[in-house]
Amino acid sequence: MPQSPELDVDVTRESLLEQANLDAPEGGKIKFLERLPFGKALTVDRYQLANGLMLLLIEDHEAPVVAYHTWFNVGSRHEQVGKTGLSHLFEHLMFNESENLPAGEFDRKMEEAGAEVNASTWLDWTQYSSSLPKGQLLTAIPLEAERMAHLVLKPPQLNSEKEVVANERRFRVDDDVDGAVNELLWATAFTEHAYRWPTIGWMADIEGFTTEDCLGFYRTYYAPNNATLVVAGDIEPKVVLRAISQSYGPMPRAVLPLEDVRPEPPQTSERRISVEKPTQTEKLVLGYKSPAFGDFDYPALSLLGEVLAGGRASRLYRRLVRELELASEVRISVGPFRDPSLFELYVSAREGHTAEELLAVVEEELLRVREQPVAQEEMDRALARNELSLLASLETADGKASTLGFYETVLGQPTSAFERLAMERKVSSSDLRRVARRYLVDTQRTVVLVRVKDDDDDLEPNSSSDSDVEAA
Q: Do the beta carbons of residue 237 and residue 59 sit within 8 Å?
């Protein structure tokens, strides 16, 4: 009688682990945790090294490419007052000199291997990504391990990157209307939680970072037991497992500090700010308190956002842009974060119209979704847009790795993208009305009215007298 497929898989995996663990460093001993379905045709194998490093492998032989991602469980939420922006600074520092690689050598070797490298930092995480030909994976693994464990942090490297980040802040925030207004929105909407400061950090903090600050941060958070590797694409698991065990196994675990994030107290009244900026037309920015990404209500609120401002057929686009011709742009986003964040609405007025005119129409449409059921046709359109967005993001190995890394880091469930899509398919019109009534209410919102400024002088925000305003 032939063996079952399940037994064949288990025997093969046991053989893989035996080869990977042969002569492995103590911290590099690999343990298989679970196999998870990823869509209809693919599976993800989840492993963990003895030093705590998580590893996700997904074989996909559609194209001879591999995506190699490193996700660290550290973002701006893990920073402290006076030290904001450290997570983002490290996104820059990690491309510098390490103990065994001179400055610029990492980029040179990866470029020679045909790799495309990138990195990003946000509120809950920091990630480093590489896309490269399948035959060059063994070049990337030791290079990535080298900078994870042996980064050089001395005054010359630090001072150089501090200036780069300071200039980036000037360009993206201080001299950019949208960046400055977004920063003001979050700093006003949150009074206690770490989401109130920007990922890039406050300028005074950026300029004040010391070498000791950076060394402490690196030794604490850039540790194997605070990271997840995601390897997706045309791979041979036995080769990948052994290479990762050898390269990452010598790294010691770190003692990770307990998070000290203060919960945001309930908001009980509107916060409103009027600010003048060098912009051609007025703008309206709204932030309603929204649930965490893992909350039961998140899929329904996400779908409602698509109904309101997802594409040219959405309600707000149709009313504000096409029918009334009050606005030139409308967009909505729901924060995909570990803790409750913001349902953000941004509207840019046409010349000659005011932010108050925009707000009046927005309020009419929000009242409609709170009082009247959304038509099934609108829900189907919104769901189709969300489905298309997910499926399009999974067309490449890099997209698969990014999705797995994000869900693992934020939710601890790497393959739950499809589960959440299934949850959206079960959302009803009554669910949309329920979340609209719960979250899209005036007492839980922050309003930023952007006025046109004629000169180049920086003006302080003007708070209205009848609103609960927290200074940014």
A: yes
306 a catalytic residue: no
Has domain 271-463 been given CATH number 3.30.830.10? yes
> Which residues have a Cβ under 8 Å from the Cβ of 314 and sit 6 or more positions away?
306, 307, 308, 330
Compute the radius of gyration of the chain from its Cα atoms: 24
| Assigned CATH class of 5-248 | alpha beta
Is-same-fold flag (5-248; 271-463)? Answer: yes
**pLDDT tens, N- to C-terminus, the chain (472 residues):** 333 344 455 556 677 776 667 677 788 889 999 999 999 999 999 999 999 999 999 999 999 999 999 999 999 999 999 999 999 999 999 999 999 999 999 999 999 999 999 999 999 999 999 999 999 999 999 999 999 999 999 999 899 999 999 999 999 999 999 999 999 999 999 999 999 999 999 999 999 999 999 999 999 999 999 999 999 999 999 999 999 999 999 999 999 999 888 899 999 999 999 999 999 999 999 999 999 999 999 999 999 999 999 999 999 999 999 999 999 999 999 999 999 999 999 999 999 999 999 999 999 999 999 999 999 999 999 999 999 999 999 999 999 999 999 999 999 999 999 999 999 999 999 999 999 999 999 999 999 999 999 865 544 444 433 333 333 2
Q: In this structure, are residues 317 and 362 in contact, taking their beta carbons and an 8 Å threshold? A: no
Candidates 62, 79, 91, 377; catalytic one? 91
**pTM given for the model:** 0.92
**Under 8 Å CB-to-CB from 102, ≥6 apart: which residues?**
none
Give the up-direction half-sphere exposure of residue 313: CA atoms within 13 A in the CB hemisphere: 9
- Supply the DSSP string of 156-212, one letter for each residue: HHHHHHHHHHHHHHIIIIIT-HHHHHHHHHHHHH-SSSGGGS-TT--HHHHHH--HH
- Domain boundaries in the chain? 5-248, 271-463
Contact 308, 365 (CB under 8 A): yes
CA atoms in the 13 A half-sphere facing the CB of 436: 24
Distance CA 64, CA 235 (A): 9
| ∠ Cα 327 182 360 (to 5°) | 35
Residue 310: both structure tokens together: 């997802």
Q: Which of 194, 181, 447, 169 is nearest to 341 (CA)?
A: 194
Residues 137, 140, 142, 144: what is their CA dihedral angle, to the nearest 10 degrees?
-140
Angle between helices 298-309 and 417-425 (to 10 degrees): 70
